[in-house]
Known about the structure:
The structure is a single chain. This protein is an alpha/beta fold. It has helices at 26-45, 67-77, 95-108, 125-138, 169-175, 183-196, 198-201, and strands spanning 6-7, 13-14, 51-54, 57-58, 80-83, 89-90, 93-94, 114-117, 123-124, 146-149. Strand 1 (6-7) and strand 2 (13-14) form a beta hairpin. The longest helix has 20 residues, at 26-45. The mean pLDDT is 90.
Amino acid sequence: MEGKHDFEDDGRILLSERSPVNxxxxxxxxxxxxxxxxxxxxxxxxxxGVTTRMFNxxxxxxxxxxxxxxxxxxxxxxxxxxxxxLTPKRDMCYAGDGVRGHLHVALGGDSGEQYVYGYGENxxxxxxxxxxxxxxxxxxxxxxxxxxxxxxxxRPGDSDVEELRVGYEKLHEETGWxxxxxxxxxxxxxxxxxANNRTRWYxxxxxx
Length: 208
């Protein structure tokens, strides 16, 4: 693995299969360990295997404790949406596109390879929150909830990553995969599911 990032002409980092890894949390480290174990079994014993890194999925049925569900469920139930750090940028990929990506890797990827993919753009968590709240207001699910940052909802210590954005050129070149659902379209589907399925998430939120 090369020890440097790829940069776009505008100076932004674009993550790829060649990007160095530096997990910042126990969660991230556990995923990386699984990647290495998969490749160890492939290299040592010839067991067919690939690893994938899909970035920041969201969509219907997702655990409401993830950022998108947290925003939507609070907006549906109250006038204030309380969140943590809204500065970090994330590459948000709709779950349906992610599933298609996994299927493309399984059916068209090469054993022993790694595939990284996402939407290909990123957005700050404040912009993501505002986008969700604006779309929900347009659809009549809520009025205009206030956004409040609370320090006790920040991630512990130095475990937050400031910016993530990923390219998907390798997967596209080998299998033709690319995202098909826009952020606006994905958000509309996700808000609609939460609004119509309160019994599926009401006892699973962490903000009450």
